Amino acid sequence: MNRSLSLLSFFSSILHVFLVLNFYGGFTVKGDIVNNICKNQSLVDPDLNYDFCVSSLEANPVSKTSDIFGLAEISMELCSRNATYIHIYIEGILKDGKEGPRARICLEDCMEFYSTAVEEVQEAQEAFNGKDYYNALIHVSNAGIEADTCKNGFTEAGIDFSLLKKQDYNFYQLTSISIDLLAKIRDSKI
């Protein structure tokens, strides 16, 4: 029984390598690279929304002629802009002053978390530009953790997270795209 599981695991690994090479052979993909990458990523990561991935990357016209490295740069820029936007959005909510004291504390914490997320993505971009793909991946992952910590603060306080639900979802999707792209680049040993 263990031998059949080992063989199944081996063939599954071979299939995975074939699929990766098929989609990313040489890191250039003939045809529509954004659709190919988003399709593959959404198959591997079921939490990644294919349509969101495509529309986000295609918002930058350069994406249509980019390779995987160019798409990673685009995705990190999207993360940076989105985290900055969320920070400003939270400031606006706090200025309105309509939230209760517990929600205010959570929002203030979230402002700090998203400020740190912006710094993490900037460090990821610097690492990426220096061809340090491992640390670029770590920094984008850390940015995602900062956003998740914001969400957890609301949950732990028993406060409805609806104020930031859409923003959190978008940031999660963007960091997932970056993480997936950076992991592929890091694993390519280029």
Automatic annotation (TrEMBL):
Gene3D superfamilies listed in its UniProt record: Invertase/pectin methylesterase inhibitor family protein
Transmembrane segments: 7-27
A Pfam match: PMEI
Any Gene Ontology CC annotation: extracellular region
Entry keywords, A to Z: Disulfide bond, Membrane, Signal, Transmembrane, Transmembrane helix
Entry-linked PANTHER family: OS01G0111000 PROTEIN (PTHR35357:SF8), OS02G0537100 PROTEIN (PTHR35357)
This protein's record includes keyword Disulfide bond: yes
One GO MF term: enzyme inhibitor activity
Protein known as: Pectinesterase inhibitor domain-containing protein
Domain Pectinesterase inhibitor: 29-181
Protein family (similarity comment): Belongs to the PMEI family.
Entries under InterPro entries matching the protein: Invertase/methylesterase_inhib, Pectinesterase_inhib_dom, Pla_a_1-like
